[in-house]
Amino acid sequence: MRDEPRSGCPINAGVEMLGDPWSLIVLRDVMFGDRRYFRELLTNSEEGIASNILASRLKSLVGAGLLTREDAGRGHKARYSLTEAGIQTLPVLVALGTWGRTHCKTSRALTVRQELLEQGGPQMVADLQDELRAHHLGVTTAERPGPSPTERLHAAYQTAIVGDPL
Amino acid sequence: MRDEPRSGCPINAGVEMLGDPWSLIVLRDVMFGDRRYFRELLTNSEEGIASNILASRLKSLVGAGLLTREDAGRGHKARYSLTEAGIQTLPVLVALGTWGRTHCKTSRALTVRQELLEQGGPQMVADLQDELRAHHLGVTTAERPGPSPTERLHAAYQTAIVGDPL
């Protein structure tokens, strides 16, 4: 990452920060998979991310202010959390997922959560962001009745993988 | 681009196709700048895209079905048009622009169109997509009263660059 952006265009700014083959995939796994440790992100990777690529992406995401790294000290594993800027990448992930679902080959099990997010519209995205704020930033919000967005996404995924493996 | 995607995840599919530092920038210029020829895309590039990178991205975007290339024959310049899949990347561009505007350094002149798109919400994005369909695919839709999304974006940009150069 250079110090000066290539231009003053906000789309370019987003592309410069997030437009590479792995950064958004790592954020997706922290966000939807609650994978908070290096080992989890590495071994549960559907895309088979390589260890050195994961390490470099985590470092650049922390440097860019999208993740924080909590170092628990000698012998303990570092834990990653989303920042507010990281949580605000969710609409980018949803938009990319909508495009991918429509125009590319995808698996049923890995698509049900995307469909649920699209059906839920901006309100579900906002509710999920609130839930991520509570979980990653310790920001408490008013309790809402019924299952949370994360619970709904998890339930849909669990149902889907019974009939259709990844 | 490999034949098989890295996984069946729709977000990954979107990232695999669009997650690089230049593809979405080229689509942005075709979409918002109506730059349809190689020379226009090269010389008007705010980000200073290199000739060989532009050539490779145009080739891969045509190969991936996001652009079509109309070859007008010997001595004539090839003209690029958006496909339906290309037009459907607009929500990804808007989401990236929203994130970039909020979290990165941007210029006033290059941000007013982004703000207008955000204020207009999903309806303005849909209207702009209809306008792009008419312009790039020849699909005619019902005339709407008042200035079109493109005219509104252009007017906002023209006003902004008077007081604040790029």
UniProtKB/TrEMBL annotation, chains A, B:
Record flagged with keyword Transcription: yes
Any one GO molecular-function label of the UniProt entry: DNA binding
PROSITE patterns: HTH_HXLR (PS51118)
Keywords noted in UniProt: DNA-binding, Transcription, Transcription regulation
InterPro entries xrefs: HTH_HxlR, WH-like_DNA-bd_sf, WH_DNA-bd_sf
Domain HTH hxlR-type: 9-108
Domain of life from the UniProt record: Bacteria
Annotated protein name in UniProt: Transcriptional regulator
Organism per entry: Epidermidibacterium keratini
